[in-house]
Design brief:
binds beta-D-mannopyranose; single chain; mainly beta; 47% strand; 4 helices
């Protein structure tokens, strides 16, 4: 049904022609006759030697990584070539990094949703780029918010996005839900509505959030989300050593005209960590989809970060994915 690609991982540190350690959580789209990818690179600051130490479980006291966004292209969506240098790195007194890019071609132009860590909170942003070298930031949310994804077209004359605010006080620590907002111009966002809450997902007990930008089908918007299961008794481990959260991929179907309405959902995870590159890495047992492409053949390519370490690909037929979504409500 859903197949992990035999070439997995499709992108990893050894494929990158500059300092790279963890290559994951990529956004992917088809653009001008090829596949394009923006990926997250957490590069170990201490170079190869510190990187080896980290992997042996010797954790340095200072923040060991420097994050940048890299660009890669592909003719088939499977074999990728990374550009010779990172394409986006933001650092200032206020901004610490941008990460977890998602890509949507909107009005014929690539748009990137991203998370931004700042000294005053985590912000979700949207930027447009014509060349994957210059990024014009169109909007930035108030903290804390991230995991934004854009719908690929206007709905009822407005732009829509899914997002995940961090409701720390009102919902208790880590009880974060998935929301939808809309905008006349991609700059000003409002009319927010709750889409899916943690308690609506049988395999989540901690938090959920948008994953890849949704794809349009005759039955509704097919959308992935990530869901988190926390067990403080069970250290899942990884190079980071202490890690207690399993990240699965979930699948839901949203109403075409009102995308804040869930009309279907898979009762089971679409993908759970099974393969060695999903089970073992910086943070074990993490699946984090960020890109989804519907091919003319009906094949859906789902790109996901695995174990916060590499980028992987799974494929399924769109009809099989739709069949997984049981009616809701
Ligand atoms: C989330 C984000 C992602 C990461 C995931 C698992 O909260 O930080 O970037 O992949 O945790 O570590």
């Amino acid at each position: 049904m859903i197949l992990r690609h035999p070439s997995n991982p499709i992108l990893q540190a050894s494929d990158i022609p500059y300092d790279a350690s963890l290559i994951f959580n990529a956004g992917v789209a088809k653009y001008q006759g090829r596949y394009v990818m923006l990926f997250r690179n957490d590069a170990c600051k201490g170079g190869e030697a510190s990187w080896r130490e980290l992997r042996e479980g010797k954790r340095p006291s200072a923040e060991p990584f420097e994050t940048s966004i890299g660009f890669a292209t592909s003719q088939d969506g499977i074999h990728w070539e990374a550009a010779p240098a990172p394409c986006w790195k933001v650092k200032s007194d206020e901004i610490q990094r941008v990460y977890d890019p998602r890509l949507t071609i909107l009005d014929g132009v690539p748009h990137v949703c991203f998370a931004m860590d700042t000294r005053h909170g985590i912000r979700g942003g949207i930027a447009r780029t014509e060349d994957f070298a210059n990024f014009e930031i169109l909007s930035l949310s108030t903290p804390d918010n991230r995991n934004m994804v854009l719908f690929p077209e206007k709905i009822r004359g407005r732009y829509f996005r899914l997002e995940r605010p961090f409701t720390v006080y009102s919902r208790g620590a880590d009880r974060f839900d998935l929301w939808c907002g809309s905008s006349p111009d991609l700059r000003y966002w409002g009319d927010h509505e709750l889409v899916l809450a943690v308690e609506n997902v049988p395999f989540a007990n901690d938090k959920i959030g948008p994953a890849a930008p949704p794809i349009k089908t005759a039955k509704g918007w097919l959308a992935t989300f990530h869901s988190v299961w926390l067990d403080r008794e069970k250290n899942l481990g990884g190079w980071e050593r202490s890690w207690f959260k399993r990240y699965d991929a979930g699948l839901m179907l949203l109403d075409l005209e009102n995308p804040s309405r869930v009309i279907g959902m898979s009762r089971k995870p679409l993908l759970s960590a099974e393969a060695p590159y999903e089970r073992n890495g910086f943070r074990n047992d993490v699946i984090f989809p960020g890109g989804m492409i519907l091919e003319e053949s009906g094949e859906v390519k789902i790109y996901y970060g695995a174990a916060d370490t590499v980028e992987a690909l799974a494929t399924a037929h769109v009809d099989d994915l739709l069949a997984l979504c049981e009616p809701v409500g």
